[in-house]
Amino acid sequence: MRQSIFLLLLVSSLLGAFFQACQNNVGTVETGFITLRFDNVAGNQELKLGTSTYQNAVGESFTVSKFNYYVSNFRLKRTDGTEYVVPQNNSYFLIQEDKPESQTFTLANLPAGDYKSVSFLIGVDSLRSLADIGQRTGVLDPGLGTHDAMYWDWNSGYIFLKLEGTSSAVPSAQNNQFFYHIGGFGGGYNGKKTINNLRTITVPFGGDVASVTATSTPKINLTTDVLKVFNGNTTLSIAQHSSVMFENYSTTIADNYAQMVKYTNQTKQ
Amino acid sequence: MKLKITVLVTSVALLVMAFFSSAHQKALLFDVPPHFPAPVYPFEKNPLTEAGIELGRTLFYDALLSKDNTISCGSCHQQAAGFTQSGQALSRGINDLTTRRNAMPLVNLAWSSHFGWDGGVHDLDLFPMVPIQNEAEMNESLPNILEKLRKKRQYPVLFTKAFGSPDITDERFLKALSQFMLTMVSANSRYDRAVRHQGATFTPSERAGWILVERKCSGCHPEPLFTDFSFRNNGLASTVNDDPGQYGITLNNEDRYKFKVPTLRNVAVTAPYMHDGRFTTLEEVVAHYTGVEHGETLDHLLKRDRETGILGISLTPTEQADIVAFLRTLTDDSFLQDCRFAENKGL
How confident is the model over B178-202, as pLDDT tens digits? Predict the structure, then answer.
């Protein structure tokens, strides 16, 4: 008898917890949205695929034919210093220069409040990189296309950033093409460590405050400067490194792309 | 009150029964041989079902997985050859292109945690993407395959049977292939029957070979799976193409020229041998270990023979012949001929 009372208590407390959870969803806590826009640029010019020519710090001229990168694991800092971590499942985006719709997205169900900065990863964290295929849908689908694939099948892992283009600095025997496919999440390999090109970027809103309420959705405009992939802690020379993929040098490029995103302004929607 | 208790007790009992009946069914689809350790594949993420396995088998033997619909998984993984490509040093893929390495045997995959000669893939579910997308193997993309499958009348039906709805997704496609491959368990060779005291007889040479394998080879090929799933440099002479093995995955110099230790099960039918298929007979393979090439990453077990202190493994010609005789007892005919793994199951 005592056991059955215990069971009943257990069931009723579970039921209670369930209903409480429902109530929260119904909206005692005010929530809202933030829209983020990643505008790809090259220095002070708009990035245009194929047509425009840019110059890196070494003085090499180049054009860009492809520029893709993952941003994930978003966190937002409030003006009081506390942080809101966006649930991981809603926190993976692939920015593709040839797909304008990929460059703007909205983080939903944010607690209302005043936010002063955003931080995120360039790349896909190790946990998700090792997760069951069932948890890799949408932009994380490893099977996405062959030409635009952001995934290495032979060395299981995502390509975090893909930058391709042409430059006269590359011999014509190689069709003047350069390739930077940067990935490597630190290794799930029997506990062995491999290169880790995940980089965290924190972007303060420069003194601006993004106020999220049920009725007001701030839009944060960010710029991603492709020149920073070349010009950073290390100056990348296309002539010296026309193709960098899964190799140790890729970590220097990752250190460069850790600096590529900046805050521009915010607009109200 | 009494009624409530009855309802509670009944529902708990039903749950327990459902749990045991599903566990029982799984045991029928995938039996862990009594002398094997526990498998490492996470079955809870991909529970085997009869329909799932059948879908996987159909996909495994369907050439539409390749760009020009000519190559199936079974083209390079032939059952009679222990799921390797019979006689090919480097397997032949689409347009008769030559691949980079020897096709690995597909057997006892539920016990393996890293796949391929260099171990670059950590999940069996993800492995089929490698040959599918490799330009010299199947040269196809997953989205294309899914489109082709949706257009074939049989597949929406097979996917519904396996997963409850006709949706054809990456996850379902890959998990069905895993389900089929996981069932390829080989544990019924003459060696296995001897271990289980099921009346298998061994010649004196085979018996001597068994003792030698335990003494000299078990550091890398321990029973009963005959691999420790590690990656090692086994002292092969360097070649022109200089395949760096596991180094390509870890970029760690210590891993140069390391390759997966393959199982010895069914080894008599999986010729040629090594990652590049350089040896055509078992005799050559065993002789190799008596004269390995020294290199920085040579496995420590091959640097000094435990008994003689000489580089490699010290073996007399008779001992080598005995080892080969024992290796032939690892051939599992019931596995090689099991109609559950065959292209045409019903025949």
Answer: 999 999 999 999 999 999 999 999 9
- Write phi, then psi, for B216 (nearest 5 degrees): -110, -20
Question: What pLDDT, in 10s, does the model give residues B100-131?
Answer: 999 999 999 999 999 999 999 999 999 999 99
Q: Are residues B77 and B135 in the same domain?
A: yes
- Print the domain residue range for B140: 43-186
Distance (Å, whole) CA B213 – CA B222: 9
Query: What was the ipTM of the complex prediction?
Result: 0.84
Determine the 3-state secondary structure of B48 from DSSP. Answer: coil
Q: Which of A18-32, A60-74, A123-137, A174-188 has the highest mean pLDDT?
A: A60-74
Q: What is the mean pLDDT of residues A30-52?
A: 96
Whether B181 and B202 share a structural domain: no
Q: Do A143 and B122 touch (CB under 8 A)?
A: no
CA dist A162 → A43, A245, A250, B319 (Å): 18, 9, 12, 55
A136, A153, A155 ranked by CB distance to B249: nearest: A155
Task: Give the mean model confidence (pLDDT) for residues A44-72.
Answer: 96
Which chain A positions have a beta carbon within 8 Å of B130's beta carbon? Answer: 153-154
Asked whether residue B73 is assigned to any structural domain, the reply reads yes
Alpha carbon distances (Å) from B144 to A146, A170, A214, B139, B177: 9, 33, 43, 11, 17
Say yes or no to pLDDT of B345 above 80.
no
Task: Judge: B4–A8 Cβ closer than 8 Å, yes or no.
Answer: yes
Q: Which of A144, A93, A145, A97 is CA-nearest to residue A123?
A: A93
Same domain, B200 and B231: yes
Are B300 and B278 part of one and the same domain?
yes
Task: Let me know if residue B51 belongs to a domain.
Answer: yes
Q: What is the pLDDT of residue B347?
A: 45
